[in-house]
Structures are given as C-alpha cells and as structure tokens.
Design brief:
Layout lengths: L6 H11 L14 E5 L2 E4 L4 E4 L2 H4 L8 H11 L12 H12 L5 E6 L3 H16 L4 E4 L29 E4 L34 H15 L7 E4 L15 H11 L3 E5 L24 E4 L14 E5 H7 L12 H16 L2 H22 L3 E7 L2 E6 L11 H13 L2 E2 L1 E3 L5 E4 L7 H24 L1
Parallel strand pairs: 3-13, 5-6, 5-7, 7-8, 8-9
Antiparallel strand pairs: 1-2, 2-3, 4-10, 9-10, 11-12, 12-15, 14-15
Helix pairs in contact: 3-9, 4-9, 5-8, 6-7, 10-12, 11-12
This protein binds 4'-deoxy-4'-aminopyridoxal-5'-phosphate.
The site of 4'-deoxy-4'-aminopyridoxal-5'-phosphate (PMP) has 15 residues, from helix 5.
C-alpha cells in the first residue's frame, strides 16, 4: 500500500497543484504502483491487462527487463549531454534506427516529444519547399503544442485561440463513418459490415474520397503547398482506416503540387501493424519525413524522445542555420531506444502483433456480429478500434454515458481500454506488443460480459 500519500490526499493535490487540463480516466482514477510487460498493478495489488499501454507508449512491455537494464547501466554512467559533444549511444542508435528504413529516410533528428517532432516536420517542409500550407485530415491528432495543434483537428483539443496557421483540414476517408465505404475497402482482416454505397459489388469509395482530396487541393489551398501529414491508421480518432490505395494517390497529388509527404508513425510504427515495421509500408508509399515517439522510448518520460526521420535533401534545408535541442539525443534516451529495437527483434514482436492482433480482430468481430451496438471492429495487427453505435443501420454514435459504463465495467473486471473518436464513441485497443492469445481470450470475455450487462440493462429500461 502507498502509505505516505493516501489516495484522497493525492486527489486533493491533483485538484490544487496539477493543471486541470490533464484529465484522468475513470470515475475513480487508478493509482498505479507497478508495471510488468502487458500488466499494470495498482496499490491495492489489483492486476490489470493494459490494452491501452498509455496510448501506445509501451511497445515492448512495461519495464521490459532488457530495456530496464540498458537504462540502469547508462544511468550510472552518463545521462545528459547536449548535442555539442559526441557519445557513442546517439551514433549507434541513429545507425540502428535508420537500418529499419528505406532510402531516402536516413537522417535522424532527435527531439523530446511527438508534438515537437511534428512542429519540426512542418517547419522543415516549409523551409524546404518555401511554401506555407499544410494539409491534414479531419479527426487527426498530431500534438498539443501551439504549432502542431494546427494539425490536430479534434474539437476537444482546440481552445479557441489562434494556433498553427496555414493548416487546412481535408475530408477523412473513413470507410465506416464517412459517406462512402464498404466491403473489401480497407486493409484489415475484418471488413466493415456497413452496406456498401457502391454499385454492383464494386467499391468506388477510394475514387470518391480522392475526388474530395483533389477538391481541397484545387479550391482551398494555394497552387503550391508545403506538405501533407497523415497517420497510416488514424490513432486518437479510433483506428480509422482509409480505403486501400488512398494514400498512394494522395501522395502523388501532393508531390505534383510541390509538397512533401509526412507520415506520423507515433502510433503505427515499430511493428504494431504486424505485416510491416512501419505503417506507411502498408500503403506502399515512402514518405519524405516520418515522425516517431512513444513506443520507441517505451514510455519513460525522462528518456522519451521523438525521432524525426528525414530525407537528406530536406534535412539540409535546416542546416543553413543553427538549430539546437538540449535534451534530444541524450545517452539515456538513445540506449533505451536501441534496447527497444533489439527487444522488438529478439522477442519477435512484429510477428506477435500480426498473429495475436489478427486473432483478436477476428474474436472481436464475433462480438460485433452478436451485439447491435458494436458497429465496427477494424484495424491491423495490434492497432484496433471498436466503434460503438446505437444500431448498425444508422451508425449513430452510442451516447458517451452508455459507453462509459461498459468501459468502467471492463476496468472493474481487470481490463484497461482506451477511448477515442470525434464523439468519444470508439474503444481503442493498443496493447504492448507482447500480449498473448490467452490474454486476448480474457479481454474478449471481459468485453463480452460488459456488453451483455449493458444489453440486459437496456432491455430492462
Ligand atoms: N502524433 C500522434 C499520432 C499521437 O498519438 C501523439 C500523442 N498522442 C502525438 C503526435 C504527440 O505526441 P506527444 O504527446 O509526445 O507530444
């Protein structure tokens, strides 16, 4: 038990001394004590299966022994240098990380957060192209810093003050909730059950969404643009998938207008999608810049750092003058980053994401088929969204209060799940990649029980 700071006392401190914008999950927020791989333990000794892993921050598992050891060893030696000196760790790490990437993504800039990396990606896109406008998707989350907030297009993160000027939002090609989409549209073992809007069994959703994208390019922005940013699967908005082929065509259109293509791999990178190491590879494209965070540092604030991987030509645009970062690339962060990459390979986590993720998607699809309020199950590997609706025909989002109860019940039964979507209607499943099929069976049973309870209540009402 945590004796020196009783729970109620901490709640009081929270109220008085911690910014209220940092909201907590659950009616009675969890007081965590320890993490081990896919498990979290609270101070009462209760164990939770972490299906959210702190918004995909823990890729290889909480306190993974290899990563912990690497950090401990480095901590006793040297943990802070600025980039003005050399240390082997940053060189080893830059070499290792870029070995996972295709040409021309061979240059790393190490920063401190996802928001900062996306800020810098925008900055470089503008410097390189000498254009200003950046296009992003509706429903995107790319960070909370004033600059990156311009790319974030979710109302609950906006504050009604000027931010990130020069960012234009375009229609999200969401094959479940958008105006077009149907069977075989997306790259997932589970297809949407919404009735296809396309004729004679042939899906034209991609063409329709591309027309909308062209419309933005032709009518809402100047003839030349600085760039386009997108996640390969949209994370915070609830694992939203685009029709197959969309990003490839969109990249071409952007490049025809002089823009660079930025892939935000904060959630989709490091093998999470299972079939590939990077999310962009699932769309058969090569971006000009990719931004990474979270998973690579395995979520330790102190050494969390984001990497910006850049095409050399674009990187050179920033070298015309000084650009400096105090903590980016510190030895502690770099040894952790290297250990995470090693653990992904040694523990075969990309394959595990594929096998266990596919198994989970198929098991969750059975819940979708059984319960009218489970509108969609989608995703790839261990990046999964379960979209809750009032009914499959209307696809209206299930009211938040109703989802809240299901979600709280899952927690009470020992399973932590994320939330997302423009209407907060989607349960987000992004566990550490070491999760097993046995864990999946447990999680699916818990979700099933929570849904049955909800349906029982709904019938009684
Ligand atoms: N991009 C994406 C896709 C994210 O999910 C996040 C964080 N949720 C960020 C950028 C911002 O990262 P950070 O919180 O490290 O600033």
């Amino acid at each position: 038990k945590y004796r020196s700071y009783p729970y109620e006392h901490m709640l009081k401190i929270r109220e008085q001394n911690i910014a209220p914008s940092l909201r907590m999950y659950y009616k009675k927020p969890l007081l965590l004590h320890q993490g081990h791989m896919q498990w979290l333990f609270d101070y009462e000794g209760r164990r939770y299966l972490d299906l959210f892993a702190g918004i995909v921050t823990v890729s290889v598992g909480h306190c993974h022994p290899k990563v912990t050891m690497a950090a401990q060893k480095q901590l006793a030696c040297l943990w802070h240098t600025t980039n003005i000196y050399m240390h082997p760790s940053i060189h080893e790490y830059a070499e290792k990380l870029t070995s996972f990437l295709p040409d021309p993504l061979k240059v790393v800039y190490l920063t401190n957060s996802g928001s900062e990396a996306n800020d810098l990606a925008m900055f470089m896109a503008r410097l390189y192209t000498r254009n200003f406008d950046i296009i992003c998707f509706r429903g995107a989350y790319h960070g909370g810093s004033p600059y990156a907030l311009g790319l974030t297009s979710i109302g609950s993160y906006k504050h009604g003050v000027a931010n990130g000027i020069g960012c234009s939002t375009t229609m999200l090609p969401d094959v479940f909730r958008g105006p077009w989409g149907g069977s075989n549209c997306r790259d997932s073992p589970v297809q949407t059950v919404r009735r296809c809007s396309c004729s004679e069994g042939v899906c034209h959703a991609n063409e329709q969404y591309i027309e909308q994208f062209k419309d933005t390019l032709n009518t809402s922005v100047p003839k030349t643009i600085a760039g386009f940013i997108a996640e390969p699967i949209q994370g915070v908005n609830g694992a939203v998938q685009y029709p197959k082929g969309f990003l490839k065509e969109a990249y071409q259109l952007v490049r025809e207008r002089g823009g660079v293509c930025i892939s935000d791999e904060v959630q989709t990178g490091f093998g999470r999608t299972g079939s590939h190491f990077w999310g962009f590879q699932t769309h058969d494209v090569v971006p000009d810049i990719i931004t990474l965070a979270k998973g690579i540092g395995n979520e330790r604030c102190m050494f969390r750092q984001l990497r910006l991987l850049i095409n050399l030509k674009i990187a050179n645009s920033l070298a015309q003058n000084l650009h400096f970062n105090t903590f980016g690339g510190n030895p502690l962060a770099c040894v952790v980053g290297s250990a995470v990459l090693d653990a992904i390979e040694e523990d075969n986590l990309q394959k595990n994401s594929k096998d266990v993720g596919t198994y989970m998607l198929l098991e969750l699809a059975k819940l979708r088929d059984k319960f009218e309020i489970v509108g969609d199950v989608r995703g790839k590997g261990l990046m999964i969204g379960i979209e809750m609706v009032t009914d499959k025909d209307s696809r209206h989002p299930l009211p938040s209060e109703e989802i809240n109860q299901i979600w709280e019940d899952c927690k009470d039964m020992g399973v932590l799940i994320g939330r997302g979507g423009l209407y907060n209607q989607t349960l987000r499943v992004k566990p550490p990649m070491c999760i097993t099929k046995k864990d999946v069976d447990f999680a699916v049973e818990v979700i099933h029980t929570a849904l049955e309870k909800h349906m029982g209540k709904a019938a009684a009402n």
